Amino acid sequence: MSTASAPPAARRGLGADAPKAGPVKALLDRRGLAKLLLLAVAAAVLVPLLAAKYGAAWPSSLTVDVSGPLGRTSDWIINNRDSHWLFVYFLGHLSNAVVLSVRAVYLVLLALGWTGVTAGVTLLAWRVAGVRIAATALLSFLVSGALGMWVPTMQTLALMVVAVLASVVVGALLGLAAGLSDRLFRILRPVLDTMQVLPAFAYLLPVVLVFGIGVPAALLATVVYAAPPMARLTALGLRGADAGVLEAVSSLGATGRQRLLTARLPLARKELLLGVNQTIMMALSMVVIASMIGAAGLGDRVYQALASVDVGAALAAAVPIVLLAIVMDRTTAAAGARLGADSATGGPAWLRGWRAWAGIAAVTAVVALLGRLAGSLVWPGAWSVDIAHPVNDFKAWMVDHLYSGVPVIGGTADWAAHFTNWVLNPLRDGLTALPWYGTLLVVAALAWLIGTWRTALTAVLAMAAIGVLGVWKPSMNTLSQVLAALAVTLVLGFGVGILAAGSKRFEAFLRPVLDVMQTMPQFVYLIPVVALFAVGRAPAAAAAVVYALPAVIRITTQGLRQVDPAAMESARSLGATRWQMLRQVQLPLARPALLLAVNQGVVLVLAVVIIGGLVGGGALGYDVVTGLATGDLAVGLVAGVAIVCLGLMLDRVTQPTERRTTGKGA
Amino acid sequence: MSRTRKAVLGTTVLAGTVVLSLSLSACGKADMTKQSSPFAAAKGSKSVTLSVQTWVGAQSNVAVAKYLLEHKMGYHVDTVQVDEIPAWDALSQGRVDAILEDWGHPDQEKRYVKDKKTITAGGGNGVTGHIGWFVPKYWADKHPEVTNWKNLNKFAKQLRTSESGNKGQLMDGSPSYVTNDKALVKNLGLNYEVVFAGSEAAQITQIQQFAKQKKPFLTYWYEPQWLFNQVPMVEVKLPKYTDACAAKGAKDPTSIDCAYPTTPLQKFFNTEFAKKGGSAAAFLKNFKWTKDDQNEVSEAIASGGLSADEAAKQWVDKHPDVWKSWLPKK
């Protein structure tokens, strides 16, 4: 379950299987050397040529200025949005359908009132996931109400219900196609790969341009983000179906459709449910980002609170988001686990089958009616608890005492300045000064050593695209921030992960902390990090570290824990000390997990570093914000594409899997 | 077991059909200019949607208008936080009904008010806005010559940060704000680097930190702004604003070399709302107050720790003479 509550980690982990060899080992084996040699020869021939012709900075003759066409596209959309058939007969209906569906769900939730919704969700959780999770659900909804967030919570819930349903339908259809047809599977796989490394921040702008600010745009951006895991897991489930069973079904004379409905889908139900679970988590993580384009609800409250530098109010809105995420995750995860274990659905007969569903409906209706009679549809205001003030006081205390002038170690602002001066600046200057062909060669070498020539080609092409778009310099700036934040994340993450793997008690203590860190919307960190680390690239890096840390810790701990006990036992019998065991047995054996942690870290860090554009991170993130804020497609979209390319490159360079050889790695 | 699965599948299929039928049932033209929020008027009441921009002054306008509309006129008010230019877009599409504080967007005005006529000008909101460069008063008192741009280069060294490298730091805020600072630094030959805080929240936090340590800083900032009450600042004199300079800048934004203009802040309405919005539209047209009024509400929100609604109530209780004249005559 801990993996299930680690959405991004789990989603990457599912597709990727165990890597064959680490980079160091790969370096030493003969094929690695051969690859390097070949590259060295290529470099020896190409570099002098390129250097003579173009020089060290990305050559302007190799860039394409897309601002003209993009500006025209954007003008065309704005001028034709009210009249062209594409909008009037297609996109307009799509938009209307979204508004109507969300509104329908919202009205139902409002009609049920807080009593009805709380009762309904609690009973539902009880039915599918058991008493403990039902209690969590009950408590969560009461807390959301007590924080004065009932109405925004219902708005977010309505949006989530529709977004998750749409993502599940879209994802399942894609997955179905990929699961049944090999050709579609081959076409779809790179598309899904790419969608997974896309930071959501990058594609808000095009969606907004077409649909305008508001719920339809927010919902569609969410679906784009949340559908891939469902598609992936559906395909995985269908392809992984036991061949023996399928044969048996065919021999009974079942048609293709019967085979699908009676054998393949039921056999894949575990993956399907996990897909739903992942989709829910992804959709929830979009709540706040989508509020930048008008999604209302809790995300909007967080965003508005941040605009007035009110961390307390932002937290009051973020807590219900975290709680919603925990309830939905635990409920679907437990439901998935129960599907696997038949007997677990025991209990009295009235708790099973249609009677249970009817019972839930009846009790919910009665409670809702009681609430209505008592005259409180929305949470009663008098029962609210104010957390904003104490939180703000705490923040003020922290800033007063930690910002500067702490004896010996210096204040957080000093650290930030040192980090910027000693790490970020040299790294940025170095990367910018490095000749572009040098960068491409390094990328090619890394990607080729770790993967195949295809991986290397993708990575190099992605980097080249950045240059062609004319954003080489800001991209190198962003890259330097990613690398610096990644280094810090890995040092901390591996350290804490090793400690957690060594002590069950520490791990148990850590788990809820990590849960909260992972589900807390990234935006909530942004103001506290500015208060502690001053405006600039340092707070962006700090926020990225906080966000990426849980996944790295979790994967490290799990990897170390899964090391074969026999190997550990034999090492111990040979008289190895704890440190020796860790260094010589555990870490080498857990290398696949550690590499996965690096890959995860990179993707997550990138996602937050660009949001750091909001706190002075500059570079690509700032350009995306500018594009969004000024409706400038040329600036925003180019930066968005560059982010995507950077993400692709980083993913390929750190992903030591030979995807082609994995039969079912969807 | 299998029942659960069927139920899951059943719900999915059902939901799919619902979504599909929704879109099919609406075959025919879909008007993209009439797109309201799904959360508007959920209680079946008369409803208005206002756009809130990220700065606190804009939040104050909306807070007070919202409070009065809800408590004195029986409306339900939804608010949406949108950046300036997307807000124009949203206004023309009818996603929001009104912008209560616009700082001057001639391009958008031409496109939507003059050409498409989907937006109607709503007159001034009574507040005059001014953008400029500011330094803290405690620093200007010690070095009065810093308040003229000609002397700024002498102080560049004091204003270095790790973000600005070996130049002085001129801090800008959100990228959505109207700014010529990059052009100004270049055209005035200043040894400064424009560092964008990325959002007003980040900028305010940083200014407060500087002020707490009594450190010098130079920042892009604007009036009216509640922060002046907490951190007194003095404006740096830039070359005088002239119409000729503005005309030159309109042609080529990189050529600007004079100060920012003083802007009477404007209201804009969705045309349909302006015509058919009834007493809400009439009320918003009448909405007009002063810089001090706005700052009183802003500071209560941003540093007094009140919610926007509480701050609005406090102001409304104190100044009945101001807002009574906004209510439309029955």
Automatic annotation (TrEMBL), chain A:
It comes from Streptomyces lydicus. It is a multi-pass membrane protein. Keywords: Cell membrane, Membrane, Transmembrane, Transmembrane helix, Transport. Residues 153-332, 475-654 form the ABC transmembrane type-1 domain. This is Glycine/betaine ABC transporter permease. GO terms for molecular function: amine transmembrane transporter activity; carnitine transmembrane transporter activity. Pfam families: BPD_transp_1 (PF00528). The chain crosses the membrane at residues 36-56, 104-126, 133-151, 157-180, 201-227, 272-296, 302-328, 356-382, 402-424, 431-450, 456-472, 484-503, 523-549, 593-621, 633-650. It is found in: Cell membrane; Membrane. It comes from the Bacteria.
Automatic annotation (TrEMBL), chain B:
Residues 1-26 form the signal peptide. GO terms for molecular function: transmembrane transporter activity. The keyword Signal applies. SUPFAM superfamilies: Periplasmic binding protein-like II. Residues 46-318 form the ABC-type glycine betaine transport system substrate-binding domain. Keywords: Signal. GO terms for cellular component: ATP-binding cassette (ABC) transporter complex. This is Glycine/betaine ABC transporter substrate-binding protein. It comes from Streptomyces lydicus.
